[in-house]
C-alpha cells in the first residue's frame, strides 16, 4: 500500500468565467468536470486536466465570487507546476505567454529541470516544468481539441511547493505517507534555508513535493489566486480506509472516508496547517457523462441531484459548451 504521487491540486478563484477562459484558451487544458463544491453548493468546482482528467493531471478550482486576494505566507501551498513533454515545449510557452500577456520569467534551471515561472490572472504562482529527463510517474495525454498543439500541451501536475515555518513537522507527515528525501537545493529567497525535495512511489515530477522553509513571512491568508489543498493518489477505497487507521495511530485527526462520487477521499491537516487529501484513482469523470462532452454541462453526484433546481438557481451562469 503506497501513495502513488500527486492526484490533484485545488485552488481558489473569484471569477469562474475568467478562470475558464485562461485555463482552457490560454493554457489549453480541458475542462473535464463542471460541478459544485460539495461542502458549499453555492460555489462551482471546476476540474481541468488532460484528455480524460486522469489522476495526476487535475488542477481544480473553487469559485468564490468576491473573495479577497491570496496573501503569500507560511502554512501554504505556494507553487503549482504543470508538466510538458520536453525542453522544446518551453520555447513554445514563452512565445504563447508573450502573445497572451501572461506575466512570466525567462526559462531557468530549478530542482534539476528547466522551468518557466509564471502567474495566472489572479496571481496564482505557477510553473511550466519540462519532463525532458524525467522518469517516474507517467504523464497524461493532452486533449487533441485543445488550442495548444498536443506536442506542447500540458501533460499533468508536476512538483508542488509548500512554504512552512517549521519544516520538520511537514516532513514528518510526508514520511508517514511514504515520502523520502531526494535532495536539498538552494533557497529561492536569499538568506533562507535550503528547499527539501521529497518524493514518493515511482518518483519523478508527478510524485514530488518541495518544502520551502521561510522565517520571513506571516501566516498565509487564503483567497483568490491561492491554493486550498493538495491531494495524493491512492488505489482504492480499501486503501483509503487503511490510511485512516494509520493516520489515527499517528495522532493526525482526519475526516475519515468521504464520498466524492468521482473519487473517494480523506482529509487531514499536517502540523503546519496545510490541508492534505488522499484520493482514489477512480471511478473517474466519465462516470456520469460521455467522454466526448466532459465539462459541457453541470454535473452533480447522485446525492445532490434532488437539489439541482435550487443549486442551479444559486449559481451564476457559466457557459462551457464547446
TrEMBL record:
Residues covered by the VOC domain: 5-131, 156-281
GO molecular function, one term: dioxygenase activity
Pfam families: Glyoxalase
Alphabetic keyword roster: Dioxygenase, Oxidoreductase
CDD domains according to UniProt: PcpA_C_like
PROSITE patterns linked to this entry: VOC
Protein's UniProt name: Ring-cleaving dioxygenase
Organism of origin: Paenibacillus germinis
Amino acid at each position: 500500500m503506497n501513495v502513488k504521487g500527486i492526484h490533484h491540486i485545488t485552488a481558489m478563484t473569484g471569477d469562474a468565467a475568467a478562470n475558464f477562459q485562461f485555463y482552457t484558451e490560454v493554457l489549453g487544458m480541458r475542462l473535464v468536470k463542471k460541478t459544485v463544491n460539495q461542502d458549499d453548493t453555492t460555489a462551482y468546482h471546476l476540474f481541468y486536466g488532460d484528455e480524460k482528467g486522469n489522476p495526476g493531471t487535475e488542477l481544480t478550482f473553487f469559485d468564490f465570487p468576491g473573495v479577497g486576494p491570496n496573501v503569500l505566507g507560511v502554512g501554504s501551498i505556494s507553487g503549482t507546476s504543470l508538466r510538458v513533454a520536453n525542453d522544446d515545449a518551453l520555447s513554445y510557452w514563452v512565445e504563447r505567454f508573450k502573445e497572451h500577456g501572461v506575466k512570466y520569467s525567462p526559462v531557468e534551471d530549478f530542482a534539476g529541470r528547466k522551468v518557466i515561472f509564471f502567474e495566472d490572472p489572479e496571481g496564482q504562482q505557477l510553473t511550466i516544468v519540462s519532463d525532458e529527463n524525467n522518469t517516474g510517474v507517467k504523464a497524461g495525454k493532452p486533449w487533441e481539441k485543445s488550442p495548444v498543439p498536443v506536442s506542447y500541451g500540458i501533460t499533468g501536475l508536476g512538483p508542488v511547493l509548500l512554504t512552512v515555518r517549521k519544516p520538520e513537522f511537514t516532513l514528518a507527515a510526508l514520511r508517514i505517507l511514504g515520502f523520502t528525501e531526494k535532495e536539498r537545493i538552494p533557497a529561492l529567497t536569499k538568506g533562507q534555508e535550503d528547499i527539501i525535495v521529497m518524493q514518493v512511489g515511482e518518483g519523478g515530477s508527478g510524485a514530488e513535493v518541495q518544502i520551502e522553509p521561510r522565517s520571513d513571512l506571516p501566516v498565509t491568508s487564503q483567497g483568490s489566486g491561492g491554493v486550498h489543498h493538495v491531494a495524493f493518489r491512492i488505489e482504492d477505497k480499501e486503501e483509503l480506509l487503511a490510511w485512516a487507521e494509520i493516520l489515527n495511530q499517528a495522532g493526525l485527526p482526519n475526516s475519515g472516508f468521504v464520498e466524492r462520487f468521482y473519487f473517494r477521499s480523506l482529509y487531514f491537516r499536517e502540523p503546519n496547517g496545510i490541508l492534505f487529501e488522499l484520493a482514489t484513482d477512480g471511478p473517474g469523470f466519465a462516470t456520469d457523462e460521455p467522454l466526448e462532452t466532459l465539462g459541457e454541462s453541470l454535473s452533480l453526484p447522485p446525492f445532490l441531484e434532488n437539489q439541482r433546481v435550487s443549486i442551479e438557481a444559486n449559481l451564476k451562469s457559466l457557459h462551457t459548451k464547446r
